[in-house]
Amino acid sequence: MDEYNFFKRFRLTKQSCLYVLRQIQEIIEFPSNKNNCVSPMNQLLTTLRFYASASHLTIVADFTGMHTSTASRIISRVSRAIVMLRPQYIKMPSNTEEILAVQNQFYGIAAFPRIIGAIDCTHIKIQSPGGEDAEVYRNRKGYFSFNVQVIVNANLEAMDIVARWPGSVHDSTIFNNSRIRARLENGDFQNGILLGDSGYPLREYFLTPLAEYRTRPEELYNEAHIRTRNTVERFFGNWKRRFPVLAYGLRLKISTVMEVIVATAVLQNITRTVMAEENVAVLPDDINEADLNVQIEAGRVEMNNIGNNGIYYLRDNLINNYFNDL
Fold first, then answer.
1. pTM for this one?
2. What is the CA radius of gyration of the chain?
3. Are 286 and 236 in contact (CB under 8 A)?
4. What does the pLDDT look like over 256-300, one tens digit per residue?
5. Ramachandran sector of residue 187 (left: φ over 0; alpha: ψ -120 to 50; beta: rest)
6. Residue 298 CA to chain centroid, in angstroms?
7. Is the pLDDT of residue 68 over 80?
């Protein structure tokens, strides 16, 4: 296949595919060549083809020339190996230099200071898992799903992912029970702030939009909030378009579904870094920047802690003392 047709079928370039293979080859390689075992490259390509499909194992097995049960085992095996790369590719900033780098990238979007991540949840459709607890996976829209929480940076890369909650669980419940909340309350990210939608509670480290605005500074705050938090919505669109199996639905057992979700997030991050170095155009984002409002012009702002004398003080102080000057 030429580069275009390979990318269209496997969602990675040939160079990126080799890059991933080098990191997982020792994990997925069989100890011997008995019983016509599948090579590491063919295992990876089978899995990538499944990620790029509508989740029909039979079609993937026919494409790769193997039995459906073999394809199923390979997809689970390779997904588990890719998940082992998670600490390397999905991670929050760990020191002052990295925190400032993330904050500066977010600041360049709409002049919103101190942001270390945009957070939201998305539903990944699954088939009914069966059993007595099956209905907990039915979300408010009526289908079975996992509710997956992701925190992204300004480069549309996942920095944290939680893919274990059933679809009926609310976004705020997932966050309240996540490790990232404990780290934020512990001050691991210094003066960093997360941005989320109105479904989350307002906290000193978590800013939500205003339900309504009356003044120009409040309007600028909401505009900057929407433009900055838009990165997580674009991540979801890009992620599901690159790996359509996430949009069409997964027909696998629950444990494998969680592995596939995290594995595709790892690959998404790799495509944002490795493919950028290859100068290969990535898939288009859901929202076109040209369709958004004009960028807010702003000068430099000091990344100082502006205090927390109450839950609403941080947001009000930011609106009155920062966005009032724009």
1. 0.86
2. 21
3. yes
4. 999 999 999 999 999 888 766 655 444 444 434 443 333 222 222
5. left
6. 29
7. yes
When comparing pLDDT for 290 and 202, which is higher?
202
Please name which of 239, 242, 243 lies closest in space to residue 231, comparing C-alpha atoms.
239
Residue ranges in the chain assigned as alpha helix (H):
3-10, 14-28, 40-51, 57-64, 68-83, 86-89, 96-110, 171-176, 179-185, 216-242, 245-248, 254-277, 311-321
pLDDT tens readout for residues 73-92: 999 999 999 999 999 999 99
Sign (positive or negative) of CA dihedral 214, 196, 154, 180: positive
Cβ(151)–Cβ(269) under 8 Å? no
Query: CA-CA distances (angstroms) from residue 50 to 34, 161, 163, 249, 257?
Result: 25, 21, 19, 12, 12
User: Is 28 in contact with 81 (CB distance < 8 Å)?
Assistant: yes
One-letter amino acid at 35 equals N
Give the number of residues written for the chain.
326
Please give the C-alpha separations between residue 160 and each of 23, 87, 91, 152, 235, in angstroms, as whole numbers.
21, 10, 6, 7, 13
